[in-house]
């Protein structure tokens, strides 16, 4: 899959960059805190999440003001501005949309669904909250905000440890660098402060859309109690609690999260072998076992070299390996069992 980039404009002139991948009915993905459409697509674990979500639908993501490819406005972030940006993205799509809000994006998505009962077919809230003030104690919030503002490098590393404790070292290091590349320290601090200030408690009773609230049981960044508040306040909402500690959706058991979301949205579940690989990934693994380079794999399979590289990265992630040699040894063991 390759993403397509575009831009929309809000009523007040804010330009919002968005990316779409896949075809079918639209699924708008309202991301948490900081985003960068291009850099996020280049992170293997994050891209794997988007690609698996996008099978059978059109996944649309966007960078909020001051992040990634969307320029800042000079105005402080607010729920009003968040909803205006989501308005602009939704207006560029046809018909009702499926909507998935992640982390800070969850209360934003819930508020938008409450205001647009006919505009949302199904709503998914992952790792979210109803009241940001309940996410962590005041002293902890003040400490983290101060750290982000005064030492963005250290702040990004501390937050990554909170967001993705189940991720391996390279993934955590990449996530910390990614956060710093998404925005300035001032923007990061302002958006994090907004996430603590968001309170959509009074809006949840107006959500009429079939809703799935999904949360990891030991999420270190957002307490499970807030997911329970969301599910209790939205009529007939379904609450699914998954094992795990990671807040980032692509860390930890990404596959189970994707299966849960796709099942609720009525999208077909991806077919994989017992090893968890797609047929194309098994072809790539075989060629890796033969010592083929990414360029040679691309030539043999009729794909571009970047796609071959992406397949290898996702095989490494899925099998929990760190090198091509491990892939080769694994494939050889499967082919020639002792």
From TrEMBL:
List the InterPro entries.
AB_hydrolase, AB_hydrolase_1, AB_hydrolase_fold, Sig_transdc_resp-reg_C-effctor, Tscrpt_reg_LuxR_C, WH-like_DNA-bd_sf
Which residue ranges does the record assign to the HTH luxR-type domain? 270-335
* The organism's place on the tree of life at top rank: Bacteria
Q: Name one GO biological process term.
A: regulation of DNA-templated transcription
Q: Which SUPFAM superfamilies match?
A: alpha/beta-Hydrolases (SSF53474), C-terminal effector domain of the bipartite response regulators (SSF46894)
Q: Which Pfam families does the protein's record reference?
A: Abhydrolase_6, GerE
**CDD domains noted in UniProt:** LuxR_C_like
Membrane-crossing residue ranges in chain numbering: none
> GO molecular function terms here?
catalytic activity; DNA binding
Protein known as: LuxR family transcriptional regulator
């Amino acid at each position: 899959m390759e993403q397509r980039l575009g831009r929309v404009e809000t009523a007040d002139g804010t330009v919002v960059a968005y990316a779409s991948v896949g075809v079918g009915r639209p699924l708008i993905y309202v991301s948490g805190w900081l985003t960068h459409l291009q850099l996020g697509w280049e992170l293997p674990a994050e891209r794997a999440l988007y690609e698996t979500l996008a099978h059978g639908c059109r996944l649309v993501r966007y960078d909020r003001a001051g992040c990634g490819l969307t320029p800042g406005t000079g105005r402080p972030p607010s729920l009003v501005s968040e909803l205006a940006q989501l308005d602009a993205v939704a207006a560029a799509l046809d018909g009702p949309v499926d909507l998935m809000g992640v982390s800070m994006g969850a209360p934003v998505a819930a508020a938008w669904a409450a205001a647009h009962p006919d505009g949302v077919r199904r709503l998914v809230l992952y790792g979210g909250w109803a009241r940001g003030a309940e996410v962590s104690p005041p002293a902890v919030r003040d400490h983290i905000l101060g750290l982000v503002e005064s030492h963005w490098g250290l702040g990004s590393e501390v937050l990554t440890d909170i967001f993705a404790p189940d991720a391996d070292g390279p993934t955590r290091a990449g996530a910390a660098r990614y956060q710093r590349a998404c925005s300035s320290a001032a923007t990061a601090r302002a958006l994090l402060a907004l996430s603590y200030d968001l309170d959509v408690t009074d809006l949840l009773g107006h959500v009429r859309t079939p809703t799935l609230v999904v949360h990891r049981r030991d999420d270190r960044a957002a307490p499970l109690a807030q997911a329970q508040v969301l599910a209790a306040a939205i009529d007939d909402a379904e609450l699914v609690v998954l094992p795990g500690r990671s807040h980032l959706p692509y860390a930890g058991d990404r596959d189970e999260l994707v299966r849960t979301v796709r099942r609720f949205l009525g999208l077909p579940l991806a077919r994989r072998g017992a090893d968890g690989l797609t047929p194309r990934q098994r072809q790539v693994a075989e060629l890796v076992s033969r010592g083929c380079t990414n360029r040679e794999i691309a030539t043999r399979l009729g794909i571009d070299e970047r796609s071959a590289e992406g397949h290898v990265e996702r095989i490494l992630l899925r099998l929990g390996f760190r090198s091509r040699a491990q892939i080769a040894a694994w494939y050889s063991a499967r082919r020639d069992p002792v």
